[in-house]
UniProtKB/TrEMBL annotation:
This is Phosphate-binding protein. GO terms for molecular function: phosphate ion binding. Belongs to the PstS family. Keywords: Phosphate transport, Signal, Transport. The keyword Signal applies. Residues 1-21 form the signal peptide. It holds the Pfam family PBP_like_2. The keyword Zinc does not apply. Gene3D superfamilies: Periplasmic binding protein-like II. One of its GO terms (biological process) is phosphate ion transmembrane transport.
Length: 383
């Protein structure tokens, strides 16, 4: 049985009352997200209208397990889990990082994996076996800019950083904020002679892999990517998207890379405007959407693997190609009907909630042809 479900139940409804009672009892089963606040209506307005989910939601309940990328952790805990919970679906999401999430999916410890980097050739074969001989699909769902985020006390202006200078900073070749290479890109800004403190992901991370591909493109291949592991020779490591943001925010002069949503709750951090060769560009929903207009895919059919390298190669004025695409890796078939329906409900809920203040939180709503392709892929997931 299919039904359209409100994303936010109408105040005073039976759905709202049941959900509130459950949340107050601490029943929200988001394993990666303990301690988060329950979702709030706008400005305490008790008359907020229900927002209708336009997708065909199956009438199922029970637990669905996801694991992987930390980049979508806040979206899962603040929005997706609470939206599913009133209808009896407990979303248990382990934000363990992309690599561990893919391993959990292949090992049948998760119903879907979330990853910022596609499955390897070996993992693709293992996933096919896990999916009862069927192909695993990458569905691009949660997009955000990767911010080059920094803390520099006493400088109110946003800092401009050419891409090659960003690479030099993370390689340890630019070590102070008043370096002439930074000053040249920031005329009129009084830069302090503050040491630069690099903060990198200490755990295996899809964000690290994407960021290093950007550094390689910025240096014409001089930077040698090391996959999901970031080089440890310069700076200090911290785990998770929130971990690097918190570490960088804690000490003046720090710089890091992380999904933009993790810079929003941290007022000490600012996101640099990165110059990809056509002038400095702010990381935003608009600038990433512009970069994605000509997006190319490496996967076939409904296996929608974004060609990240082509985004860097096709950079143009006003575009921010340093974008993080978090894929939900699912079985195209091989779940069984109940698990299939729960997975599809999760994906439809993620897609339906990309509205309102979603972009203000640092995410990039899916639009146009990419959104249409994602809708078709979700609909085609079989048992």
């Amino acid at each position: 049985m299919l039904k359209n479900k409100p994303l936010i139940a109408a105040p005073g409804s039976r759905r709202t009352t049941a959900a509130l009672a459950t949340l107050l009892a601490g029943g929200l089963a988001l394993t990666a997200c303990s301690g988060s606040d329950a979702p709030q209506t706008e400005s305490g307005d008790s008359t907020t209208a229900a927002v209708e989910n336009p997708y065909p939601m199956a009438d199922v309940s029970g637990t669905v397990r996801g694991a992987g990328a930390t980049s979508q952790k806040m979206f899962i805990e603040d929005t997706v889990g609470p939206a599913l919970h009133p209808d009896g679906i407990e979303l248990e999401y382990q934000a363990t990082g992309s690599a561990k999430g893919k391993a959990a999916f292949v090992g049948k410890q998760a119903d879907f994996a979330s990853t910022d980097v596609p499955l390897s050739e070996r993992a693709t074969k293992d996933a096919q076996q896990r999916c009862e001989g069927n192909t695993a699909w990458h569905i691009p769902m949660v997009l955000s800019p990767v911010a080059v985020a920094y803390r520099l006390d006493g400088v109110d202006q946003e800092i401009n950083l050419p891409a090659r200078v960003v690479a030099s900073i993370f390689a340890g070749n630019v070590t102070h904020w008043d370096d002439p290479r930074i000053a040249k890109a920031n005329e009129g800004v009084k830069l302090p002679k503050t040491p630069i403190k690099v903060v990198y992901r200490g755990d295996q991370s899809g964000t690290s892999e994407i960021f290093q591909r950007f550094l390689a493109a910025a240096t014409d291949g001089a930077w040698k990517p090391q996959g999901p592991s970031f080089p440890t020779g310069v700076g200090l490591g911290a785990n998770g998207s929130a971990g690097v943001a918190d570490q960088a925010a804690s000490e003046n002069g720090s710089i890091t890379y992380t999904a933009t949503p993790f810079t929003k709750p941290t007022p000490q951090l600012k996101a640099a405007k990165v110059d990809f060769g056509f002038g400095p560009v702010e990381p935003s929903s608009k600038s990433v959407t512009e970069a994605l207009k000509g997006v190319k895919y490496q996967g076939k059919g409904k296996n929608m693997i974004v060609d990240a390298d082509s985004l860097f190669a096709d950079a143009a004025e006003g575009t921010y190609p340093l974008a993080l695409t978090t894929y939900e890796v699912v079985c195209s078939k091989g779940y069984g009907e109940e698990t299939r329906d729960k997975v599809k409900n999760v994906l439809y809920t993620m897609l339906a909630n990309q509205q309102g203040d979603y972009a203000d939180k640092g995410y990039v709503p899916l639009t146009g042809e990419m959104k249409t392709k994602v809708e078709e892929a979700i609909g085609a997931i079989g048992a």
